[in-house]
């Protein structure tokens, strides 16, 4: 997911996206623990997506506080 796509979304959509990514991360961790994870790189991609989403949320909060 690109940062430019995330910046176009509003706060509620970002929160929803964050929730979905965290659920996906949980499922991937469970697959990894049981030895069924086919592509280990997916876990890293989801983790980075979560970080991007959190970064954009914080940017939006700081810009609204500064205004």
TrEMBL record:
SUPFAM superfamilies per record: Ribosomal protein L29 (L29p) (SSF46561)
Coiled coil: none
Keywords, alphabetical: Ribonucleoprotein, Ribosomal protein
InterPro entries according to UniProt: Ribosomal_protein_uL29, Ribosomal_uL29, Ribosomal_uL29_sf
GO MF term list: structural constituent of ribosome
HAMAP family named among the record's database cross-references: Ribosomal_uL29 (MF_00374)
UniProt xrefs under PANTHER family: 60S RIBOSOMAL PROTEIN L35/50S RIBOSOMAL PROTEIN L29 (PTHR10916), LARGE RIBOSOMAL SUBUNIT PROTEIN UL29C (PTHR10916:SF0)
Family that this chain belongs to: Belongs to the universal ribosomal protein uL29 family.
Protein name in the entry: Large ribosomal subunit protein uL29
Record organism: wastewater metagenome
Taxon lineage: unclassified sequences, metagenomes, ecological metagenomes
Recorded name of the encoding gene: rpmC
């Amino acid at each position: 997911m690109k940062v430019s796509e995330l910046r176009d979304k509003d706060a509620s959509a970002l929160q929803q996206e964050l929730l979905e990514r965290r659920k996906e991360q949980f499922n991937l961790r469970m697959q990894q623990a049981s030895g069924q994870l086919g592509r280990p790189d997916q876990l890293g991609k989801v983790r980075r997506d979560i970080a991007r989403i959190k970064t954009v949320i914080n940017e939006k909060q700081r810009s609204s506080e500064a205004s």
